[in-house]
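Mods, move this if it's the wrong board.
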Amino acid sequence: MRNLSLENVTPALENVFDQTPNPRLKQIMCALVRHLHGFAREVQLTEEEWTYAMNFLVRAGQISDEKRNEFIMFSDILGLSAVVDLISHGNGMLETPASQLGPFFVDNLPVAESHIVDLRQDNPGEPVLFTGTVIDGDGKPICGAIVDEWQTDGDGLYDVQLTELKGPRFRCRLRVDENGQFVLKTVRPRGYTAPMDGPGGEMLAATRRNIWRPSHFHFRIRATGYATIVTELFPEGDEHLDNDVAFGVRAPLILNLPKCTSVEVGKKVGMPVPFTNIEYTFRMRRRSS
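Not the wrong board. Structure tokens:
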């Protein structure tokens, strides 16, 4: 188009997608153009601001690697992850509500030999015995479901943030037993701030937002024929449950924290007394054919 103007540039860009063979891709690209151009018009974006934004994205790419994804952090702190979760899973009426995958997920871990995994080793922290049960919409156990769990340590750090570690810590992959159950011997995770050493942290600091996440356990659960669950569970009592920087908290995902002080029970389950005894049921939804 030779006579490009502010009035016709948007429909001109939409027209270039007319030959897109994938109708869903065409829908997404046309909508992206409309909203992106509309945003620039609404705020009257300057060249200096555009240049800063482009460099901002470049720096996000430079700081991202297999252990950290700054773009997922953007998605979380801007609430986009929450919107996509709610679009995809609604309010969790038929399944456990979804929550953030987060920037520290690590894939391709080996599956543990047992459905009972001790993550504590010699690490300090408040001991937790977590018993999870994976069921379908009829309440029947889903045998063979694969569970990923990852969390921070007692200092609020993920293993991938500690360069001196040689392997995973407070992170595992396991297969549930014939009753759909698994058991984790772990510690209570600690809340933490969003990473502040990159562009995402700059955004939070510039807008003077809360930078804290409440403590949480991450889970990803997969089973053949069922929609994958990606979610977080949040211990009750954390001061940031109502102002999570990543908008991940849902009421059904908040955990009660019953204490066990019985020495006899502690010996039976192999836990130091006192310990927190958490039980939670994950409900999976069958995939639509």
